[in-house]
Amino acid sequence: MTAGTGIGASEYLEALQQAGVTDFVTVPDFVQLALHQAIEGGDSPIRLVRTCNEDQAVCVAAGLRIGGRQPIVVIQNQGLYACINTVRAVALDARIPTVFLIGQFGRENANLGRPTTESGRRVVSLLEPLLDTLQVPHWGLDASSDLAAMRAAFETAAARRGAAALIVNQPIAWH
User: How far is Cα 149 from Cα 166, in angstroms, rounded to an integer?
Assistant: First the structure.
């Protein structure tokens, strides 16, 4: 894997649609900017729901889920750190299935193709250990073939009645 070879936004849109996603609940994320633009451009039937912060995103997604929709919470790693208590309360304790699409903001090009836990930046290296500590199943998205995990994340969150996370390990490409 090299810098600039991220998975294309159109491929993410297709995977989201195949997973039955109805709502893209987000605090904008630089790593996933191309996907945000594709959603904003109306390239899919998925509804864009902007929120003020990550705590609100988790709660709005929970309400949508309770209402019978299939939302995804789209944030970056720093945002997940900011809303850990809400994740604990809503997705883990209240057991509301919640799927996160988390951009690895701050990942160095030199770390691509290596474990993120070896990154020299804590904002990157702590994400997977934190998810493990919270017992949140997670999948890394590095290549187009990894997008099959999108459906698995939703199935896992529903079966466990909890959280699951997909980690966008490099910026999403504009194609």
Answer: 8
